[in-house]
Amino acid sequence: MLMKxxxxxxxFFRFIVxxxxxxxxxxxxxxxTGRVTESATGNPLPGVTVVIKGTTIGTLADMxxxxxxxxxxxxxxxFSYVGMETQELNVGERTTINVVMNTVVETLDEVVxxxxxxxxxxxxxxxxxxxxxxxxxxxxxxxxxxxALSGAVSGLKVTNFSGNPRAxxxxxxxxGTDFNGTGSPLVIIDGxxxxxxxxxxxxxxxxxxxxxxxxxALYGARANNGVILITTKSGDVTEISLNxxxxxxxxxxxxxxxxxxxxxxxxxxxxxxxxRMYQATDGNWQGYNNATSLSTAQPFGTGNRYxxxxxxxxxxxxxxxxxxxxxxxxxxxxxxxLNEGWKKMTxxxxxxxxxxxEFDRKKAGFNDPAVTQDYNVxxxxxxxxxxxxxxxxxxxxxxxxxxxxxxxxxxTLNGEYMIRKWLTSKSNFLFTDAKWFDSPTSxxxxxxxxxxxxxxxxxxxxxxxxxxxxxxxLYDIPKLIRESNSNKFHLGQSFKISFLNNLSxxxxxxxxxxxxxxxxxxxxxxxxPGRMSTSRYSEARYTKTLSNTYNxxxxxxxxxxxxxxxxxxGYEFYDSQYTYLSASGKGAPTDDFRALELTTTEEGARVINxxxxxxxxxxxxxxxxxxxxxxxxxxxxxxxxxxxRLLGDNRxxxxxxxxxxxxxxxERFMERYRNIISFLKLRSSYGLNGNVSxxxxxxxxxxxxxxxxxxxxxxxxxxxxNPGLKWERSKTAEFGIDISFFENKINSNFTYYNRLTLDKYxxxxxxxxxxxxxxxxxxxxxxxxxxxxxxxxxxxxxxNLSWDIAGNISYNKNIVVKLPDNGLERNxxxxxxxxxxxxxxxxxxxxxxxxxxxxDLYVYExxxxxxxxxxxxxxxxxxxxxxxxxxxxxxxxLYGPQAWADLGDNKGNGLPIKPxxxxxxxxxxxxxxxxxxxxxxxxTQPKWFGGLTSTLAYKGFQLYARMDYSFGxxxxxxxxxxxxxxxxxxxxxxxxxxxxxxxxxPNAQYPEYRWADQLGSRNVTRPTSMFVYxxxxxxxxxxxxxxxxxxxxxxxxxxxxxxxxxxxxNIGYFTASKMNRPEIYGSDYLESGYSMPRxxxxxxxxxx
Amino acid sequence: xxxxxxxxxxxxxxxxxxxxxETLDLxxxxxxxxxxFWKDQTQVEGYILGVHKQLRDRDRTYWLLGEARGGLxxxxxxxxxxxxxxxxxxxxxxxxxxxxxxxxxxxxxxxxLNINMGIFQLENKIDFxxxxxxxxxxxxxxxxxxxxxxxxxxxxxxxxxxxxxxxLQGVNSAEPLYTERSTxxxxxxxxxxxxxxxxxxxxxxxxxxxxxxxxxxxxxxxxKAEVYLWSAKVIxxxxxxxxxxxxxxxxxxxxxxxxxxxxxNFTDVFNYNKKGNNEIIFALRFKENEAINWxxxxxxxxxxxxxxxxxxxxxxxDPLRLxxxxxxxxxxxxxxxxxxxxxxxxxxxxxxxLDIYDKDAVTGELINGGLILRKFLGxxxxxxxxxxxxxxxxxxxxxxxxxxxxxxxxxxxxxAQYINMIRExxxxxxxxxxxxxxVNADFETNELAILAERDKEFVWECKRWFDVRRMQDGAGNPxxxxxxxxxxxxxxxxxxxxHKVLWPVDVNTLxxxxxxxxxxxxx
Lengths: 1104, 523
What we know:
A: 22-stranded antiparallel β-barrel, B: 523 residues, 6% strand
C-alpha cells in the first residue's frame, strides 16, 4: 500500500520536473566544458557536483574531473563537493571554466537566532546561545522535538520520564531555579510562547537555547530558566521532500516475574513463613498472618473450585469468585484439565499436588513490538520577493500497553512576500491534530509494574471461552471508551515596513488557539466475578485556551567606519483566556450510546461545571548590539514587564542584561599563533530575569471556594490573600572562552556561570494552629553554579571520507543560600534527624537547609543477612529494631534473641529477629535501630551530564551515533522492594526471589521471603541500601546507518537525493542501575513507570 | 508623498498601541476573591454551610479519636485476611513520640480558621444582617468552635487556643503565629465560655436548619451536657471538678428532653430515607452524589467473602449487595466477643453486625467469627448500586437518656429507668421486662451497665473511647483502666501507661512551632 502510493507520487513529481526542464530551455544556451582539480595535490577531482544556480540542472565531473553543461551566458555555475569550499562562477563569455577546489577552512559564520527577529553570526556572539545540531531532529522518530534533545546542548538536562509516544520530557537548564532542582525554560515558537508538543520536528529549521541572562533578559519576566527559540522552516531551499519512517518498539522491561509454578511455590512459602515467625510458650507457631488463607479462594489459595458442589457442573468464573483463580488440590476428577493446558506441581507447604493454569500477563497486556509510522512531505521554494514552505506530517504510534496509541497530524504553512519595496507581509500557520488512547484500567505509572505482577494463576477464560474480568485489559478495553483529542492552531501575521534602508518597523499579531476534548463512557462490565458495573458513566470535557500576542518592533542599524551597531525597541501585549466546560451523567438506558442527553435526570446524577480565567502581560523591551572593528563586542538588553497575576506596586518588574566580548585572535600580537589558534574570544555577561511560575492566575487575591452541603452551594476559605508577593529575580553572571584550533578544525567553548535567584518563592511553613500549612513569600535565595564545555572536532576530512565528533559536558551544583527565618538552625525546612556517623550525635539532614545542596538520599544500611541463629545471637542478641517501614507499615518492634526472651509473655505486636533477616547498621551503636539510624548514600541529582555525537561519512554512506550520559548520582528503587516484599499480599514477585534466604540457602543475597514484609520485619520494605543504585549511565540514544544513492543514478530520474536509513533508538544503557530508565533522577523514590521502548526504525528520504 | 503619509500614519498607530492600556486588573471569574466576599446574606449563609461541610469532612477523625482506641477494635489482620488499618499505634495503643497515630492536631485547625474568620466578620465587619440572623449565625459558630476544641481538649489536654483568623488578616510570617499550648484547665474554661456565648447568642431561637444537618441551640445544649458531665468526672492535669458541673449537665439535658423522642424501631434512626427524624438532634449530613461516608472500610471485598460462611451455614459472596461499588474492604473490624455479648433478642445485634465464619475442615463447625458492619449501609440507588451515604448522628435522643442515667448514677439515684427505656426500644416486641430489664445496683455495676448499653447503642458513633475515659469504677478511677469493659480483652490501658489517656503530638507539628511542648509522659 505504502509502496504503491509512493510510486504514484514519484510519477507525478517526475512530470513536474519535466516541466521545469522544458521551461529552462527557452532562452539561448551554450556548452561549457572544464576540469576540476584539487588544490592541495593538483589531481583531478571526480564526482564534483556542477549545477546552474537557481535550478536543478547540473552534472557531475567524470573520472578525469571533466564536465560539460549547457548554460546561459548570464548563468552562474555552482561547484560543490563534500569537504571542499563551494564555488560560484559567472559564465559570461567563457566556454571553458577550469576550477581548483580548496579544502574547506571551517568558518564560524553560523547564524544564531537571538530573539524578536534578531540574528547574529556566532563569531560575534557575546552570550551563551547553543544551537541544536540538525542531525538530532532528523534521526530517529519523535512525536515531539523535545524528546530528541537529551544531551543535545550543554547545560540543558532533558529527561524522558515516560516512553508514552506523547510524553513530554522534563527540560531543566543549569540546575533549575527551584529548590528542588526544577524549573523549565520558556519555549517560543516563531515568536509566540508555546509548547514543544505543538510542533512536528520535520518542520523545524532551528532550535536555539538561550542560557545566560545577557540574552534571556530580552524575554524578561518568564525567562530565568532560559529560553528555547524554535524557528520553523520558511522556504530557503527549493525542493520537494518526502520522508518516511517505519519503526518497531520493543518492550524494555526491567522486571522479570515468576511463571505460575514458581509463583505458587514462593507465594505459598512466603505466606507460610509469615505465619510461623516464632513458637509461643504453648509450642504453637505464631506469625503476623494466618496460614488459613492458603486454603481460600485466592490467587495462591487452594479453595478455588472447578465444579459446583454437585461435582458435575463447572462453575463460571465470570459469575463465581470460586472459579476465578486456578489453583486447587489435585483430585482425579480434574485429570481432564491436564489435557487442556493445566499443570501440576507439588505444594511446598502441604506436600500435596496442586493443579493450576497459567495466564500470560505480558501477552495480554502489551504490544510487543508496537509499530510507529511517521510520514512527512514538504514543498518549499523562494525567490527575491517571496518564500514559501508547506509541510504535511502524519505520525501514528502504538503504545506499549496493549491497544494504546497516539496519532498526530500536522500542517505547517509559512509564506512571506515583498508586496512593495518597503512592505513585506509574512504569514504563518501551524495546525496540529492529536488523538490518543491511554490505558483506561490503570495509571501509566502503575501499568508496567502492576499488570505484569498481578497473579499469573488467573483463569484467562471461563467455561464459555469468555475473558474473565478484573485485570485483563483485553476484557476491559472494549468496554471503556476514552477519546482524547487536542488541536492547536498557531496563526501569525506580520508586516515589516522599511522606512529607510536601516530603519524598519515590524507589526505582528499572533494567535494560539489550543483546545482539548475528552470523552469517556463506561459500558456495562464485570469488575470482578459476579460484580456487574452498570452505572454507564458518561463524561465530556472541553478546554480551550486562546492566547494573543501583539507586538511592535522598531529596528535600526548603522555602520560607520569601524563602528557597527544595531538597535531594537519593542512593545508587546499578551492576553490569554482559558475556558473549561465539563459534564457527566450516568444511568443511560442503553450501552450503545454515550450521548449525555441519555443519562438519567435523577437529582444529583448529572454534574456540570465550567471554569474561566484570564491573564495579561504588558511589556516594553529593547536591545543594542555594538562592535568596533569586529573585535570589541557589546550587547545591552532590557525588558519591563507588567503581569496581571501580581498585584499593585509589585506588578511591574525591570530586567536588564549586558554582555561584552573581545575577539583576541584579530589582535596583531596573536598573528604568530594563527596556525594553531584560529579563533579566540573572551566573553562575559550579566543580567537579571524574573519568574512568577507556580503562581496561580488569581492566587494572590485569595479565594472563597464553592462547596456543597445538604444539596446547597456554600463557601469556605480556599486560599488566603497574599498581595505582597513580588517577582522572583535571577541574577546570572557568566564568563566564557570560545577557542578554535587548526583552521577551526577543533572548536571549543568553555563557560562558567553563577546564577543567584533572589526573592525566591519559598513556602514559609506556619504553625499548624494557624490553620494553613504554609504561605508563599519572597524569602529565599538559591544558587546554581557550574561549568559547560562544548567541543567539536573535525577528525577526518578526506575526499569521500569525513568524520566529525562533537560532545558536551556540564557540571552543575545547586546551593540553598537563604531560607525564610523560622528560628530553626539553618532555617531548615522538611529536614529530619539522623545520627552523625562520627560521634553518634543527632544532626538535622536533608530537606532544605541554608548552605546545603538539596537532594541527599538517606537509607538504612543493609550489611548482610543473618545466616543462622549463631550469627543472630552474636550480632543482635540484645538488639531492638524500630526502623520505620514503607507502604503503610505498622512498624512492629523487632527483638534480638535475648531482648525477645526478656519480654516474657508480653510480646505485644513484636517479632523476633531471625536468620534470614537483614543485618542493619546501628550507626550510634546503642543497640536500637530507629529512624535515626539512616545513613547518607549520596545525592539524587547528577553532578555531570552531557552528550556525544559521531558522524562518519564515506561516499553515500553515513554512520551516525548519539549518546548522552549523566554521572554522580544515586537512585532508590521503590518498586522492586514492593514486589520482593510481597507488599500487595497476592501479587507476583521477581525472579530474584530465588536467591532469598532459606535454611538450604543461608548465603542468599536477599532476606527470607515473607508475606507483606511491611507488616512484619521490614527487611526490604524500608528505604534500604539494598535497593540503592549508582545511577551513572551512558545512554546509546541513536545509532543510524544511512545510504544516499549516487547522484548520477538519480539525475536520470530527476531526483536530487534518495537516502535509506536504518536506525536503532534507545538502544540501551551502560549502567550499574537496575532501573529501566536510569536517566530518571531527583526524586527520592523511583517507581516502575512507562519504560522507554527500544526502537528499530527504517527510513526513506527522497528530495526532488 | 502618499507613501510618506502612509508611513507616518503607521508610526502614529504604533505610538497609540504603546499608549493604549488594557487593564492588568483582573478578578476571578468563577468564585469569590477575598475582596468581593462578605457582601451579602447569601454569602454568610453559604459560609455557615461551608463550616458544616468541613465538620463532615472530618468524619473519619471523629471515629479515630472517639472510638478506634476504645478497646473494641481488632488489630493486625481482619477476618478476611486483609491487614487492618490503624492497627498501630491507635488500635493497639502503642503510642510514643514517634508513633503518634495522628498528625497536625488531627487536622482541626483549618476548620478553626474558617470559624474564626466567620466570627470575626460577624462581630466586627458585617452590617447588612438583621440582628437576629447575625446572632443565630454566631450561636452556631461559637457552638461549633466549642465542639472542635472539645475534641482537641479530650485528645491532647492543653492545646493552643486560637480565636483570631490571623493569616487572613495579613500576618504572613511564622513568628507572630507561634502559640504555646494552654493548660487543660484554660482550654476547658475556654470551651465553657464559648458555650455560654453560643447559648446567649441563640437566645430563644430553637430553629434547626437543613433537616437537622445544621448546628442549633439544641446541639449547643447537648455539647454543654457532654462538657459538664466530663468536667464532673474527669481530671486532666491542672483541672479540678466542680460541684456544680453535674447539676449544670442535668439541667441542660432536662431542657432538651421532651423535644425529641426514641423512634420505635432502632434501624429507622439511621435510615437514609428518614434523615432528620425525631430522634436526631444533630447529624453530619451525607448524601448521594454529594458525599459518602467511610463505612465501606468496615465491609468486605466480594472475592474474599466468597469462601466465608454465615451462621445458618450458607455462603454468599455479596450478602449485603455491595456490588463492589465504592471502597469495600474490611480494614476495620470490631472484636467478636463484643458481638457475642448481645442478646439474640436484641434487635441491635444483627442490625449492627453481620457475623461471618470459617468452617472447620474436620468437624464442620463454624469457627473464627468475624464482623462486618451493617448499621450504616445507606441505600441501593436507581442504578442498583449501593451508596454509603447515611448521616452520622452526632447527638441523638438515646444519648440524652444515657447521659441522664450516668448523672443519676453519679448522684446515687436510679439509673435503671433510663437504661430500660433504651432496652425497651432495642428489644422491640421481644422485650420482656422480667428477662431484659435492668435492675438498679451499686455504682460500679450501674456504671458498667450504662457503658455496655452505650456500647451496643452507639457502635460507630464515635463515643466508646470517650466513654471508657469518662466513666468510673467503684473507686472513682476511669474505666479505661478496668478489665471489665472489653469483653475479656483486658483493660484498655494499664495504669503504668496512664499518660496514654492523651495523645502524643507528632514531631512535624512540634518542629513547626518552637513554643510547643510534647504531651506530658511522651517526652
